[in-house]
Amino acid sequence: MSLSVALHPGGLDPESLDGRAVVVVDVLRASTTIVTALANGARAVIPVADEGEAGRLAATLDREATVLGGERGGRQLAGFALGNSPSAYTPDAVAGRTVVLTTTNGTAALVRASGAARLAVGALVNAAAAAVWLGRALDDGLDATVVCAGWQGRVALEDALCAGLLVDRLVGHDRAEPLDDGARIALGLYRGARDDLARALFGADHTRRLVALGAGDDVAACARLDTLDVVPVYRDRQLVAGQV
Fold this sequence. Notes:
10 helices
């Protein structure tokens, strides 16, 4: 079975994901936020591409059991209870509740990939679990793709590094061949940076954007490796906690 990486979703044809297992990666910050929310007891996370749609959807749900989160350009959306900071998705804020989330890049990529046979969310914080999830999909005879959310249709270093990490952990799998060019590029990038991954992450363009917005602590939280074993899996238009 093949293992591929889409370095950004700009030219991705959703139909190309039919029959594939897909992990969407948006390290800074949507993937990390989703994993954190579910690890902290959220019932589900509903990814929504459009700000207006998120508000309309939340209005149809039980107000006491729903949290509306979102950002654009790194800033929390007006009228939304939470933004896109993983540290804000505490047990007090989300346990037992459904999070309706819309972000600049990550949730749009998830919606774009929603037609995949299997769909999950990966980040550095759950990389080990996400790699196991992908490995099981390969065992089941599915081709696998890592989709990097990127930044507004362009490649984002942090997502490519995480994709390369996932490929590195799967490259010895007997069904993980062939690799496409995207997977080889991501793998080479990760292997060149793995001895000091945090330093590479802190050199990313989006890191500088977040630091300028006063969200530098979020970058440190997103840089933690293999700290959570939750794999958000997409079922019935929402992400729920799966574990491996």
